[in-house]
Amino acid sequence: MTESPGTTYADSGVSIEAGDRAVALMREWVERARRPEVVGGIGGFAGLFDVTALKRYDRPLLAASADGVGTKVVIAQRMDVHDTIGFDLVGMLVDDLVVSGAEPLFLTDYIACGTVVPERIASIVKGIAQACAEAGCALLGGETAEHPGLLSPEEYDVAGSTTGVVEAEKVLGAHLVRPGDVVIAMASSGLHSNGYSLARHVFFDQAGWELDRHVDELGRTLGEELLEPTRLYARPCLELVDVPGMHAMSHITGGGLAANVARVVPASVSVSIDRSTWSPAPIFDLVGGVGKVARTDLEQTLNMGVGMIAVGTPEAAARSLAVLAERGIDAWQCGEVSEGGEGVVSLASDYR
C-alpha cells in the first residue's frame, strides 16, 4: 500500500510516542512497589500474581475494592503538583479492604487525561507506587488513556481497584460487635479525599480565595492544606486485626463519621460517640465558618478529623491504642456500644 501524507492518530490529539515515554519514566517507581508474588514486570497485557501463598490459608476469602480520588484532582492540577494524589487513590482503596480484616495484595490504576504529558503521568504513578509500598501491596499494572476532546490538555482523572485476602474466620464486621464494646478513633491528616466539591464551592465560588492564599489558622497556604495526602492506615490496622477482641473497623469516607460507623454495627445495638474527645483540625472549622455550612452538613460530608474507627472489647481497645501509638497514629477512645437502638450511631457533646 502506498504511503500518503494523510491524517494521523497524532492529528486527533493522541500521541503513541508520549504514552511510550510515560511508561518508560514510570517503570522505576512501579518496580519499587513490588511484592515477592509479582511475576514479570510492566508492559504486558495483564499483571501476574502468584497465589500459591494462599495455600497457607484454611479458607482464603478475596476482598476487592474500586474507587477514585474525586474532585481533589482539580487541586493537584491547579497547583501543578502531581506526586501526592496517588496517596489519596491508594488510601481510598486499601483502607476499604482493611476494615474487613483483609491484607491488600495488589492494585491496578487507571489514568484518563486530555493529553499525555509523560513527566506528569510518571509523577502521578510515582505517588501511587510510593503509597503502595507504604501500604504493603504491589502496583501490579494500570492503564493510561488519552481522551482529547473529552478532557482538556491539563485535565486528568485517576481511579483504581485493589484485591486483598483474609482468612474466613478472621473477617471483621457487624456480626462480632457486642454491647460493652468501645470505639477507637484514629486521626485523619485532613479532608482526605472526600468533600472536595463542598470545599471548592466554599473557598473558590463563595469566598473567592486563591490556592496561594496564606491562611493563618492553617499555618500554610490553602492549596497546601487541600493537597495534604490521605493518611494510610493499612499496615497499622492489619496489626489490630490480630488483637484478641477486635470486632470491626470503619473507614470514614463519604457520608461522614456516623453513617460509616453504622455500616459496621448490628441493628441490635446503638453507638454513642463523644465529640468532646477530640478537636477537629482548623480546616474543618474553616469550611463551616467561611461557607456558613451547618454542622449537620459538615458531619455528613467530611470526616471531621477521624479517618478510621476500630470497635472492640475494652481490652482490645487498650492494646490497639498501644499499637497505634507505636506506629505514630494519633488515636483515642471516642465512644461505646450499648444494647438496643436499631444500629443508630449518635454524636454527643461538642468538639473540644
UniProtKB/TrEMBL annotation:
One annotated GO biological process: 'de novo' IMP biosynthetic process
Q: Where in the cell is it found?
A: Cytoplasm
CDD domains xrefs? PurM (cd02196)
Q: Which SUPFAM superfamilies match?
A: PurM C-terminal domain-like (SSF56042), PurM N-terminal domain-like (SSF55326)
For this record, an example GO cellular component is: cytosol
Residues in PurM-like C-terminal domain copies: 178-345
Spell out the molecular function terms from Gene Ontology: ATP binding; phosphoribosylamine-glycine ligase activity; phosphoribosylformylglycinamidine cyclo-ligase activity
| Superkingdom | Bacteria
Task: Give the matching InterPro entries.
Answer: PurM-like_C_dom, PurM-like_C_sf, PurM-like_N, PurM-like_N_sf, PurM_cligase
Q: Pfam families this protein is in?
A: AIRS, AIRS_C
| Keywords assigned | ATP-binding, Cytoplasm, Ligase, Nucleotide-binding, Purine biosynthesis
Q: What is its EC number?
A: 6.3.3.1
Its recorded reaction(s) are:
2-formamido-N(1)-(5-O-phospho-beta-D-ribosyl)acetamidine + ATP = 5-amino-1-(5-phospho-beta-D-ribosyl)imidazole + ADP + phosphate + H(+)
Q: In which pathway does it act?
A: Purine metabolism; IMP biosynthesis via de novo pathway; 5-amino-1-(5-phospho-D-ribosyl)imidazole from N(2)-formyl-N(1)-(5-phospho-D-ribosyl)glycinamide: step 2/2
Q: Per the database record, which ranges form the PurM-like N-terminal domain? A: 61-166
Record's family? Belongs to the AIR synthase family.
What name does the UniProt record give this protein?
Phosphoribosylformylglycinamidine cyclo-ligase
Identify the species of origin. Solicola gregarius
Q: What is the lineage of its organism?
A: Bacteria, Bacillati, Actinomycetota, Actinomycetes, Propionibacteriales
